[in-house]
Amino acid sequence: MAEKPIKIRVPELLEMKKRGEKIAMLTAYDATMARILDRAGVDVLLVGDTLGMVIMGESTTLPVTLDVMVHHTRAVANGAKRALVVADMPFLSYQLGEVEAVRNAGRLIQEGRASAVKLEGGRVVAPVVRRLVETGIPVMGHIGLIPQSVHMLGGFKPVGARPAEAEHLLEEAAALQEAGAFSIVLEWMPPEVARTITQSLEIPTIGIGAGPHCDGQVLVNYDAFGLFEEFTPPFVKRYAELGAEMSKAAEQYIADVREGRFPTEEHTYRAAAAKAKPK
Ligand code: KIV
Hints:
The protein is an alpha/beta fold. The chain is about 45% helix and about 15% strand. The protein has two domains: about 10-240, TIM Barrel, CATH 3.20.20; about 245-275, no CATH class.
């Protein structure tokens, strides 16, 4: 295996596909989480517009605004040392024309300090992808279940089971690669379809609910680590139950405060000041 670079940049992901090395991507929404995931060695941190659901408590990603994305992207970029930071372009930030899309993606790069942006859709957004890439902004595509179209799709559900749908997805992926996208997220589609797309492309695919044949995988960190408890998509593997752990810790804290076990002598102002005193 090739030595891991100090900082992951867009061309490194293409090299990883060539070497047959899997790409590990997770979402992050703040600096502390970004720092933890970066330290663990994740390759890509996606500031996903899923933050609308897992951070803001909305039922879809549609209410997320560009200002909110810029704010969270900056936080993640502050925490990430090695991982490539990719920022989602929120609903209506790239559908109203190429100039508007360049301006908005530019804010995610300039103010948010992202290294790339992600947007949803295939052939329809290809001209926007081309324009962003010509401007010097790397673009990750996203096809399959595209959550910003949840109302058209009739809910969050898998796509691509029928042969015509699978063929359509293949064409969407080809259009994105042709327009200059450096990678494509394949969300919730049959593994065989994801495999065919992955084998047909030179750029890496990152799967979520798309089986094991993609060049990499992504999960929403709040799902993977058990922090988001409203619902868990069936394709998610839970690697920890941090929500339950935090509840337990909070119960202990509450009991300690109520029963006078916290603070003790070691947590008083005087003890803390003594500890902090330069030797
Ligand atoms: O917004 C997001 O977190 C995403 C992932 C589900 C890929 O797009």
